[in-house]
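Before going further, it is useful to explain how the protein records used in this thesis are read. An example of such a record is reproduced below.

***
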Amino acid sequence: MINVGQVNHLEVVKNAEFGVFLDAGEFGTTLLPKRHVPEGIQVGQFIDAFLYFDSDNQLAATTETPIAQVGEWGLMQIEGVNNTGAFASWGIKEKDLLIPYSEQRGRLNVGQSILVYVYTDKASGRIVGTTKFNKWLDKTPANYTANQQVDLIIAERSELGFKAIVNGEHWGMIFSSDVFGKLFVGKRLKGYVKAVREDGKVDLSLQKTGVAKMDDLSSKVIELLEKKGGFLPLNDKSAPEAIFDAFRTSKGTFKKTIGGLYKQGKITIEKDGIRLN
């Protein structure tokens, strides 16, 4: 089955001076321009190509990788605005992504970087973008468990912290008290479910919570000490940034963890770092 708006594995069926023709199933054949054709490709071989509709609404192919395919989110920059909507840089030189005015939560300006969801408009068949995410999220119950690891995309900043998209399916919130390190719209990272409320809203954390958090970090500290010959130049006096770079955790959690390891006799805390016993 051919999926327009996504990368497809397509057979080369004909060579031409200006490129090769690919078998696009029910769409017939489509041209892959010469500049995108891998050297030495022959008829009968297959190419991974992204399919989209060009400005004339004709099927087109490219080996360039878009920032986001249909069904995905991506951080894009607005390149132009007209009476139809805004046009975002999609990662494809020949084609910007249209974000119609009806799909904008607020008016978009040239040069602005925004998170965009890419989908196929059922009425027109066109691939477009939207910044109205609510209609794509929270369509199924949030059946997560505490400390479950999930994939996050930071979607927006609020007075409470950061709203994030969880596993591409649900809204979640990282409260300011749980934020450490640098977060920004469009950032992708791993996180953990802190709790699922009765109303279905998901509270998130950037590290495991409770005893599981401490146990997980303890293992990481010991593992890194072993890899580094038994010494790390980090202790309870180190800068939060240095601790975050090494373990993706807060200074407070790190201090409690190495304190526990010290009491267990597993490490020694020295003036310039920690040492494995």
About this structure: The radius of gyration is 24 Å. The first strand starts at residue 7 and ends at 16. The mean pLDDT is 90. The chain is about 15% helix and 40% strand.
